[in-house]
Specification:
The protein is mostly beta strands. The chain has one domain. The strands form three sheets. The chain has a three-stranded antiparallel beta sheet. The longest helix has 7 residues. The two termini are 22 Å apart. The model has no long low-confidence stretch (mean pLDDT 86). Bound molecules: zinc ion. The site of zinc ion has 6 residues, from loops.
Length: 138
């Protein structure tokens, strides 16, 4: 069986909610005084991680969203990264992002979503190392 070990350094951002990815470009939308259908400010949808939507259900009506099989949280607190190629075999055209997942930016500019458990198993956060020997022992 061919085996590989990587020493690549990747950039990964942890995502918990809309606007967390630095390339999301989310801005606060304030209600205008004469607006009759927006009374509270809200953060615009991320450009990288969009809101996970189910057609016909408003995302703020959380009790209508199913519970995620991966993290047991309602799907309305999840994100979605559009990607035509990933998960094509499963009939999906993107990545579901659970709160707490990591988003890795690939060399080709595409994104890959990985769980915290996966990241803990395969990567070490080099910004938090006290000693470079920790990398050698990883
Ligand atoms: Zn989830």
């Amino acid at each position: 069986m061919p085996r590989f070990k990587s020493k690549e350094i990747i950039t990964a951002y942890r995502w918990f909610q809309n606007g967390d990815h630095p390339d999301d470009g989310s801005i606060m939308i304030e209600p205008k005084k004469d607006n009759v259908d927006q009374f509270k400010s809200f953060l615009s949808e991320g450009k990288v991680v969009r809101r996970y939507r189910i057609p016909g259900i408003e995302f703020h009506i959380c009790e209508q969203y199913p519970v995620c099989e991966q993290c047991n949280k309602r799907m309305n607190v999840h994100g979605w990264i559009e990607d035509e190629i990933c998960n094509k075999s499963m009939g999906k055209s993107g990545w579901v992002v659970c709160p707490g997942d990591y988003i890795i930016t690939m060399d080709n500019g595409k994104y890959v979503v990985r769980s915290k458990d996966y990241m803990d198993k395969h990567y070490i956060d080099i910004d938090t190392l006290r000693d470079l020997k920790e990398i050698e022992n990883f």
